[in-house]
Amino acid sequence: MLGILLQIVRTTGTLLLGLFAGGMFCLSLASSVSELPGPAYVPYWQALNTDYVRAMPPLVLTCLALLVLTCVLSYRRGWLVFGLGVSATLLVAATVVFTLTQLEPINQVADTWPVDQPPGDWAELRDRWWRLHTVRTVLVTAAFAVILMAQAVDRPRRAAVGRVDVPGRPAQAVV
Predict the structure, then answer these.
(1) Nearest-CA neighbor of 67 among 126, 147, 138, 172?
(2) Which of 28, 35, 83, 150 would you label with 121, given CA atoms 20 to 30 Å apart?
(3) pLDDT tens string 102-141
(4) What's the CA dihedral at 29, 30, 31, 34 to 10 degrees?
(5) Which residues contact 82 (CB under 8 A, 6 or more apart)?
(6) Signal sequence: where (predicted)?
């Protein structure tokens, strides 16, 4: 029963983590956006901030809760499975802390800019944000890879197939 619960919890957590990592990765692929002039880039940045502030906390916090539960449920599945679960959880937690302490302050500043007249240093802040976003993307992508490894190495143990010889009877397969 706990094995089935672990599979459901870890699979759901992996799905949410994949959505988070995929979103960060896809955003990184849109590097041409960072070449837009200020009056075009700032409204894009502000709209993105609005969407992410609304969508990401429930997604990431639910994911984090499921990963913590995955760790609890996988404690007796061996050190490799447990360690991979803990590593993925810590990487997601580090991503959250990094986002809140490094990227979010920049986002809050950008949200105050007038769209038609960004400040003179807007491009420097944008470039810093993109560098920090790259670090965040690496962290969350690593977390996704680690939880996928945990799923791959955690295979249910199957009963050994053997033969039992009972005197006076033909050998029987035991499943």
Answers:
(1) 147
(2) 28
(3) 999 999 999 999 998 999 999 999 999 999 999 999 999 9
(4) -160
(5) 71, 74, 75
(6) none
